[in-house]
Write a structure and sequence with these properties.
The complex is a heterodimer of chains A (282) and B (293). By secondary structure, chain A is an all-alpha fold. Helix content of chain A is 71%, strand content 2%. Chain A has one domain: MetI-like fold (Orthogonal Bundle), CATH 1.10.3720.10. In chain A, helix 2 packs across helix 12, helix 3 packs antiparallel against helix 9 and helix 7 packs across helix 9. Chain B has 13 helices and no strands. In chain B, helix 4 runs antiparallel to helix 10.
C-alpha cells in the first residue's frame, strides 16, 4: 500500500520533532569526545576532528598538580549517587509498600482519617519543610551525612497512595481465604499480595531511584562536604566555576545523565504505564 | 486490638513516623520560624532568638528583590504554562494521528529528556545557548539571524530558560494527553465527520470537550511546577543577568543558606505555600465541577 502524502507528512513531522528533542543529548555525547577546546572553534563543530577520551580522563582521574592531588570529585560523586539512590529505593520500598497495602486492605481505627491527612498533605510543597528540617537535622547531627540526604526521601506519601491504589484491585476474597486457612497477616502480605504487586513495585522502584538520582535542592542544602556530594550537586559546583570548559562539562553531564537514561530505556514500559496508573484518588 | 489492626500498625507505623519527623513537624515549625529573627547568630546560640511577629513579612514586602523574584516567577509561569502545555498537546495530537507508525518508539524518545537530571541538562543547554559558539546561534545564523546573547541579556534570559524547561518536561504531559486522546469517543468523531465537520471543527467540538478537564488539570499542575523553578537559574544564570532570573525559590535559598536568615527565608517559604495552596483550591474546584475528584 502506497503512503498518502498526508501520512508521509505526519511521519516526517514526528521524526523531525524526535530528532530535535534528542539532538541536545546526542550533541552532549559528541562534544564530550572532542579534544579540549575544540567546541569553541568557529564555525561550531558538529563532529570531533578526532575522538578523544581526554575530557573523561581529566574529569575522572586524580592527578598530582604542583605536589597536590587534584580531581573534580566526580568518581566519589558517582559512588555517592549510586549508594544514596540504591539505599533510598530499597528502604523506601520496604517502608511504603507494606503501608500502602495496609491502607488498602487492612481494617484499623483511624485509617480513613489518616488517609485524608496524607492526601491533603500532598498540597504542601516540600520546600516549606526544608528550612526547619535543616535545623532539626543539625540538632540530630544528620547534616552532612548520607542519612541526612536519604531520610527525607523516605517520607513517601505519594508512594503509599500509589501502592494503595494498585492494591485496591486485588479481590478481598483471596486475602480472606488465606486468613481462614490460618495464615498470618505478614505471611499473607509476603506470599499472596506481594507477588501480585510486583509490576507496581518495579515501577515504584524506578520512580524512587530516578527521583533520588536527580534530586538537587535538598542534597545541595544538607551536604557541605565535597566528598559527600551527589552527582547533580558536584556537577552544579563545577559548572558554576568552570563554565568555559565546554567539553569537560559535557563529559560531566554524560556521566550524570547516561546511567538513568539507560535505566529508563531498559524499563520504559514500567515507567510509562506507571505514569498513567499513578493518578492518585481518595 | 485485633490481629489485623496490629499488622496494619506494624506495616504503616514506621513510614508514618518518618513522615511526621521529616515533613509534618518541620512544616509546623516553618510557621513558627517565620515569626522569629532566626539568623546566623541564633544558629550559634539559641539565646539570640527573638520573636518578631510579622516583622519578617513586613521586611520582605519592603525588599525590592523579593518583588522582583515574585514578578520573575510570575513571568515564568505565565509564559511557561502555555508554552509547555501547548507543546505537549501539539505533539500528542501529532502522535495520535492514525497514519503515524512506530508510535511506541517516538513516545519513548520524546519522553527521554524528562528523566534526565535538571542540573546536567541545564549545563548542556547553557552550552547550546552560548552566544559565540553555541549550536542554537549557529542554527540561527544559517537563516541569517544575528547571534543572540541568550543567557546574558535580561530580556532573553527567561525565554531561553523556558525553551530548556519546555524541552525537558513536555514529554510528561504528552503521555498524559495521549492517554486522554485515546479515550475520545470515536463514534462521535465519525458522526461529526459525516456531518461535514472539518479538521478544526472536529478538534474544537469533539476532541477539546473530551480532553478539556485533563488539559485544565495539567495546566494548573504546571503552574505549581513553574512556581518552584530553582535549579535552572542556579546552574544557567546564577539568578542573573540583572536579577532577571531570580525566582522565589532562588531568593529563598540565598536568604536561607547563603545569608543564613532562616526566619526571613521561612517567611518566603510561607508565601510560596500560600500561592500553591490557592492554586490547589482552584484545581479542586475544577475537579468538582467536572466531577472526577
Amino acid at each position: 500500500m502506497a503512503l498518502k502524502p498526508r501520512a508521509i507528512l505526519a511521519n516526517a513531522a514526528v521524526a523531525l520533532l524526535t530528532a530535535l528533542t534528542i539532538a541536545p543529548l546526542l550533541y552532549m555525547v559528541i562534544v564530550s569526545f572532542m579534544p579540549r577546546g575544540e567546541s569553541s572553534n568557529l564555525p561550531t563543530p558538529l563532529w570531533p576532528s578526532h575522538w578523544s577520551l581526554e575530557n573523561y580522563h581529566e574529569l575522572l582521574v586524580r592527578r598530582l598538580i604542583d605536589g597536590a592531588w587534584f580531581d573534580y570529585r566526580i568518581v566519589p560523586a558517582l559512588f555517592n549517587s549510586v549508594a544514596i539512590a540504591a539505599i533510598s529505593t530499597l528502604l523506601g520500598l520496604l517502608l511504603t509498600v507494606p503501608a500502602g497495602y495496609a491502607f488498602a486492605k487492612l481494617r484499623f481505627r483511624g485509617r480513613e482519617r489518616l488517609l485524608k491527612i496524607l492526601i491533603a498533605s500532598l498540597v504542601v510543597p516540600g520546600q516549606v519543610a526544608m528550612l526547619p528540617l535543616f535545623l532539626i537535622f543539625k540538632q540530630l547531627g544528620l547534616v552532612n551525612s548520607y542519612a541526612g540526604v536519604i531520610l527525607p526521601s523516605l517520607a513517601g506519601i505519594f508512594a503509599i497512595l500509589f501502592v494503595r491504589q494498585a492494591t485496591l484491585a486485588i479481590p478481598d476474597e483471596m486475602i480472606d481465604a488465606a486468613r481462614i486457612d490460618g495464615a498470618s497477616e505478614t505471611r499473607i502480605f509476603v506470599t499472596i499480595v506481594l507477588p501480585l504487586l510486583t509490576p507496581i513495585v518495579v515501577t515504584l522502584a524506578l520512580f524512587m531511584f530516578l527521583g533520588s538520582w536527580n534530586d538537587f535542592l535538598w542534597p545541595l542544602i544538607v551536604l557541605a562536604d565535597q566528598h559527600l556530594y551527589t552527582l547533580p550537586v558536584a556537577v552544579a559546583a563545577i559548572a558554576r566555576e568552570h563554565s568555559a570548559d565546554g567539553e569537560l562539562m559535557m563529559a560531566a553531564a554524560v556521566v550524570t545523565t547516561m546511567p538513568v537514561l539507560l535505566l529508563f530505556l531498559a524499563m520504559q514500559r514500567y515507567y510509562l504505564t506507571g505514569l498513567l496508573g499513578g493518578s492518585v484518588k481518595g | 486490638m485485633t490481629r489485623q489492626e496490629r499488622a496494619a500498625w506494624l506495616f504503616s507505623a514506621p513510614v508514618l513516623a518518618i513522615i511526621a519527623l521529616v515533613f509534618v513537624l518541620p512544616t509546623a515549625l516553618a510557621m513558627a520560624l517565620s515569626v522569629t529573627d532566626y539568623s546566623i547568630y541564633a544558629l550559634a546560640d539559641w539565646a539570640n532568638l527573638r520573636f518578631v511577629g510579622l516583622g519578617n513579612f513586613i521586611d520582605l514586602f519592603s525588599t525590592p528583590l523579593f518583588w522582583r523574584a515574585l514578578a520573575n516567577t510570575a513571568v515564568f509561569a505565565v509564559l511557561g504554562v502555555p508554552m509547555a502545555i501547548g507543546t505537549s498537546l501539539a505533539v500528542a495530537l501529532l502522535l495520535n494521528d492514525a497514519t503515524v507508525r512506530w508510535k511506541p518508539l517516538w513516545r519513548v524518545l520524546l519522553f527521554a529528556p524528562y528523566v534526565t537530571s535538571i542540573v546536567a541538562t541545564a549545563v548542556v543547554w547553557r552550552f547550546l545557548f552560548n552566544e559565540r559558539s553555541g549550536l542554537i546561534n549557529r542554527a540561527l545564523a544559517t537563516v541569517g539571524a544575528a547571534p543572540v546573547d541568550w543567557l546574558g541579556n535580561p530580556h532573553t534570559s527567561i525565554p531561553a530558560i523556558l525553551i530548556f524547561v519546555t524541552w525537558k518536561i513536555f514529554g510528561y504531559n504528552m503521555i498524559v494527553f495521549t492517554a486522554a486522546l485515546s479515550a475520545v469517543p470515536q463514534d462521535l468523531m465519525e458522526a461529526a465527520r459525516l456531518d461535514g465537520a472539518g479538521r478544526w471543527g472536529r478538534f474544537r467540538h469533539v476532541t477539546l470537550p473530551a480532553i478539556g478537564p485533563t488539559l485544565l488539570l495539567a495546566a494548573v499542575m504546571s503552574v505549581a511546577g513553574f512556581l518552584q523553578i530553582f535549579a535552572e537559574p542556579y546552574v544557567m544564570t546564577l539568578g542573573g543577568p540583572a536579577q532577571s532570573t531570580t525566582t522565589i525559590l532562588y531568593f529563598m535559598f540565598d536568604e536561607g543558606f547563603k545569608w543564613w536568615n532562616l526566619g526571613q527565608a521561612s517567611a518566603v517559604a510561607f508565601v510560596l505555600f500560600l500561592m500553591i495552596l490557592a492554586l490547589t483550591m482552584v484545581q479542586t474546584r475544577i475537579g468538582k465541577r467536572y466531577e472526577w475528584l
